[in-house]
Design a protein that fits this description.
Radius of gyration of chain B: 26 Å
CATH architecture of the largest domain in chain A: Orthogonal Bundle
CATH topology of the largest domain in chain A: Rna Polymerase Sigma Factor, Chain: A
Helix content of chain A: 55-70%
Strand order of the largest sheet of chain B: 1-2-3-6
Largest interface: A-B, 78 and 58 residues
Number of strands of chain A: 0
Radius of gyration of chain A: 18 Å
Structural class of chain B: alpha+beta
Order of helices and strands of chain B: HHHHHHHHEEEEEEEE
Largest sheet of chain A: none
Strand content of chain B: 15-25%
Oligomer: heterodimer
Strand content of chain A: under 5%
Chain lengths: 194, 249
């Protein structure tokens, strides 16, 4: 495997998003282009996981990225990394979109939701993405079935915990706890610090 | 809802899985619960890892669309909410401009959002004007520097003149009658650091004649190049330069 060569020594130095975003906040379009290149795959990925429709996903991803440009002057590094800020915004927007669509047309989720796993089958050329997928997949396997289903339905499908409870036929309190316990396990397995 | 129940909502909150009413209640709780806030921050960072794992490549057209779009979207000014500032500014009326501002603010109170937005826009425009003025001063400073040296070149159907001041360590590129770049493209300026190109900013794609303060110090660069790049510019040149010139002696 050729890409094994890169493990440990990254093929390209990661752009310093924090610094770039600071330049974006001063109106630097070039810095924004660099931010775009660094985050667009993940932004589109998370939006598409939730919305599933390619065209709609690109539309929402575009909104998110323009919002990053617009609100960069309000970004506060002490509240979290630039990457987390952008990806949180992306997920929030995707969830808002899916919920407003749901309000318009109440649909029957349950069967469709449960027979689909998150779209991990994407062919990706990106070594970093593949490594990240491997690690997340491995860590998701350390969760109990209910924890994993609760977390992935909420995050990758954009369901509220009430919808998760309905889909899994579980009491509301159980789902709340599973979401929290699942995230604690995932956090520890991935070695995440805030 | 009891406090214990609220604590258990950190996970659902970080995953955006709370309905709006519960989210609002949890956020009120969050403001006074530092252990919850820490957990939420950690869970948010964990969720970001789930996002990274879902990465997919976009169609190339998206880049151009987004970079084109930001050229038309005004950024928020940094800092607090606008209404707060409006209220504070109101009582300090003095002189004609102040009076006009006060009148504007009185209208803002009456009309609500639209007028406040207009007030904000006026303020943003002043920020922009101040920035443009500083740029113009810098440009003038370089052009008028006693040690300014220049060199001209034919470029893109027009003329380009590079002016460098060693004492200021800055350079200005003046374009005259250059053809506009194709739609969705810009001219990007580069400093040549002994064969490595370092971006020196973008030219205004809407103007054929302009003086551009090149971004960053000259810092010993051996020359300057101009390329055509996608809107927003590139980190490295992606096309053959339309012009390359050495530093004026």
């Amino acid at each position: 495997m050729r890409e094994a060569v890169y493990i440990g020594t990254k093929p390209a130095p990661e752009p310093d998003l924090q610094r770039l975003l600071h330049e974006v906040a001063l109106g630097d379009q070039e810095a924004f282009a660099a931010v775009y290149d660094a985050v667009v795959r993940s932004v589109l990925g998370v939006v598409r996981a939730v919305l599933r429709d390619q065209a709609q996903s690109e539309e929402v991803a575009q909104e998110v990225l323009v919002e990053v440009w617009r609100t960069a002057p309000r970004y506060r590094p002490e509240r979290g990394t630039a990457l987390n800020w952008i990806l949180t915004l992306a997920h929030r927007r995707a969830v808002d979109r899916v919920r407003s669509a749901e309000a318009a047309a109440a649909r029957d989720h349950r069967a469709a939701l449960l027979d689909r796993t998150p779209e991990y089958d994407q062919v990706t050329e990106q070594v970093e993405t593949r490594l990240e997928q491997e690690q997340v997949r491995r860590c998701l396997r350390t969760l109990t079935d209910l924890q994993r289903q609760s977390v992935t339905l909420a995050y990758y499908r954009g369901l509220t915990y009430r919808q998760v409870a309905e889909a899994l036929a579980l009491p509301l309190g159980t789902v709340k706890t599973r979401l929290r316990d699942g995230l604690i396990r995932l956090r520890d397995c991935l070695g995440v610090t805030a | 809802m009891t406090t214990t129940d609220l604590h258990a909502l950190t996970g659902a909150y970080a995953l955006h899985a709370l309905p709006d009413d519960e989210r609002a209640a949890f956020e009120r709780h969050l403001a006074g619960c530092s252990s919850c806030a820490r957990e939420v921050a950690e869970f948010t960072a964990t969720a970001a890892r789930l996002a990274l794992a879902a990465s997919v490549p976009p169609r190339p057209a998206l880049r151009e669309r987004v970079l084109h779009r930001i050229g038309t979207v005004r950024q928020l000014p940094p800092g607090a909410a606008p209404l707060h500032r409006v209220r504070r500014a109101a009582p300090r009326g003095r002189g004609a401009a102040r009076w006009a501002l006060a009148a504007c603010l009185a209208a803002a109170v009456g009309l609500g959002g639209t007028a406040v937005w207009q007030y904000e826009r006026a303020r943003d425009a002043r920020h922009d004007a101040a920035r443009a003025e500083r740029q113009a001063e810098e440009v003038a400073g370089v052009l008028a520097a006693p040690d300014a040296r220049s060199r001209s070149v034919r470029v893109a159907g027009g003329a380009g003149t590079l002016v460098v001041s060693a004492s200021r360590d800055r350079a200005v590129f003046m374009a005259s009658g250059m053809v506009r770049p194709p739609s969705g493209r810009v001219y990007q300026l580069w400093f040549d650091d002994g064969g490595t190109m370092r971006s020196a900013g973008l030219m205004d794609p809407g103007r054929t004649t302009q003086a551009v303060l090149m971004r960053g110090a000259v810092d010993g660069a051996s020359g300057v190049g101009i390329t055509v790049e996608p809107a927003g510019g590139s980190r490295q040149p992606t096309t053959t330069p339309v012009a390359l010139l050495g530093m004026p002696a």
